[in-house]
Amino acid sequence: MEPEFDHSDEERLLLEAIEARATDIHIDPLTEAYCVRFRIDGILRVRRTLSRDEGEKLVNQIKANAGIDPGTVFHPVGMREKWNLRGESIDFRVTLVPCVSGPKIAIRVLDLNRIERRLSHLGLQDQDRECLERWASELNGMILVTGPTASGKTSTVYALLHDLANESRHVITVEDPVEYEINGINQIQVDERHGVDFAEGIRASLRLDPDCLMVGEIREAEAAKQSVNAAVQGHVVLATMHSRDAASAITRLRNFGLHDHQISAALGVLVNQRLVRKLCWECVEMGDATEKERSFFERRGLSAPERAGTAPGCDACDGVGYHGRTGIFEVWNLQEPEYDAILKGKDERYLREEVDKEDYTSLLSDARAKVESGVTSVAELIRTHTDLPWQAG
Ligand SMILES: [Zn+2]
Q: Does the structure show a pLDDT above 50 at 210?
C-alpha cells in the first residue's frame, strides 16, 4: 500500500520561508534531533529544532512531494517541485544528500517574483547602469559578469536578459542549472550525463543563429574558447565567470588558453560585483565615520567617508540591523588604452593601475559611496570580501 503523506507540514514550512524572504531552507540531521535553518540575505539562521521523529516525518513528506524515491538512501538527488502557494505557482529545487546521521535536505526557493527584472534596481551607479543599458541596446561585443559565488551575477544577467528579450530578438542561454524560466527566451540546460556540456550547448546554440547567447557560467577552457570565439565572430555574448575582480578576469581567460588578441577582440564590457546586505532603512542612524571605518578606505588608497550608518535593529529587520541586499559593482567599458594593455600582454596589476587612472567605478569606490550614504556598512564589506587582497596594507 502507498504510504499516505500529509502535505501540510512542508507547505507550512515553504510559506514560512517565503514570508521570511528566505532563499534556502536547510533541514539538517543531528544525533538526537533535526535542525531547520533559513538563509535570509545570505546568512543562515536557526529557525527551529525538531525531534528526530518530527524531522524524519518532514523529510519523508518532502521526498514524497518532490518525487524522490523513498528508498533513496545512498545517493545525492536533486529534484524540482512546483507549489501553488497563495494562488501563485512557485518553484523549489530540493536536494537530498545522505549524511552519516541521516538524510540532509536543502530547498532553494526559486521565486520568480524575487528576480530583479530591472537594471535600475541592482544598485548600479548611474554611469554604470547607462553603460549596461547601452550595451543591451547596441549589442556590441561580449559582456562578462564576474564575481565570487553568491555575488549576484545571476541577477545582473537576468536583468539584462529581460531587457534583451523581445519578439524581434532570438536569445538563447546555456545554463547549469536553469534557475528561472524566462518567457520568450530559449534556455538550454547543461546535462553532462547525456553529453550536453557547456561547449556542446554553445556549439548547438550558435547553429541556431542567435542574436544573443548567454553562457552561465564559464567554468572550463573549452567553454571559454567557444564563448570568446563566438564573440570574435560577431555574435553577441553575455557570460558569467568566477573571478575576484575585473582585472583578474583577464588573467582567468588567459589561463583558459585564450590569446590576448582574441580577448581584446571579444570583450566589450567587464563587470565585477559583490552582494552586500543593506542596513535596515527603518532603524539606520547616520553619524560621523569611526576611525576604523575611515582607515578601512584610507589603507586602500581611497579618501575616507565622512559619514557612515549604524543600525541597532528593530522589528522591521527582526533585530538584525540589515534588511535586503544590494550589489557593489565595478564596470569597465573597455577602451583603447585597456585593449592596448591586453594586446601587449600586460598583467592584471598593470591593468588595474591603468583603469584606476580613469573614471571607472571600482568595487571600493562604489563601496565607499554606499557606506557614506548609509546603504551598507564596512563590516559587511569585510564579510563579503569586497576589499581586494593586493590593495590591502
Ligand atoms: Zn531595523
A: yes
